[in-house]
Amino acid sequence: MTSDRKANGEGTIAHDKVRGRWVGRLTIGFGSDGQPIRRKFVGKTRTNVVQRMAAARRALDSGMPIPNDRLTVSTFLNRWLDTLPGRVTESTINLYRSRVRLYLVPQFGFVALTKLTPAHVFDLMSAMEMKGLAPATRRSARAVLQAALRRAEQEGSLWDTG
Questions:
Q1: 20, 33, 45, 61: which has the fewest C-beta neighbours closer than 10 Å?
Q2: Against a cut of 0.85, is the pTM above it?
Q3: pLDDT tens-digit readout, 29-40
């Protein structure tokens, strides 16, 4: 005799009729106080939510943290800049801060870090070229973004959901 119940750790998926979205909930661990830590996955289709939950389970099984879907590029870049003192010189930090403030944040600072695509970077480079900025300025802005994204990947703030 088989049961229709889900096993522990599989999570739940339900349709939110008010918003017309599918919502999945998954317990990813337990806090120091013993309370469960849950993540919510929202999508237009059930399949999308199932895929994202499966990717989260794979990440958990491999020991990777689950990225925060609400973390914006702007928030991450500013947090990353705060970790740099002691690792690079003050003049380098000033250069990084100016590239982030002048070019990166205005272009796609509002985008969720997990949703940043190569198209966003291409648009940034095109916009900088259209403004007539020097090639060295464009290269340095791209290098700052590349260094920050490398750090995000090391932290587990980025991963492929496919």
A1: 33
A2: no
A3: 777 788 887 888
Q: What are the boundaries of each domain within the chain?
A: 12-61, 73-155
29-33, 41-45, 65-69, 130-134: which is most confident: 130-134
Which DSSP string corresponds to the chain? ----SPPTTS-EEEEETTTTEEEEEEEEEE-TTSPEEEEEEEESSHHHHHHHHHHHHHHHHTTPPPP-TT-BHHHHHHHHHHT-BTTB-HHHHHHHHHHIIIIIHHHHTTSBGGG--HHHHHHHHHHHHHTT--HHHHHHHHHHHHHHHHHHHHHTS-----
Place of tokens 């020097």: 134
CATH topology of domain 73-155: DNA polymerase; domain 1 (1.10.150)
Number of C-alpha atoms within 13 angstroms, CB side, residue 18?
1
From CA 62, how far away is CA 72, in angstroms rounded?
25
Instruction: Say if residues 27 and 38 touch (Cβ distance below 8 Å).
Output: yes
Query: Exposed (0-12), middle (13-18) or buried (19+): which is 23, by Cβ within 10 Å?
Result: middle
- Distance between alpha carbon 57 and the CA centroid of its chain, in Å? 17
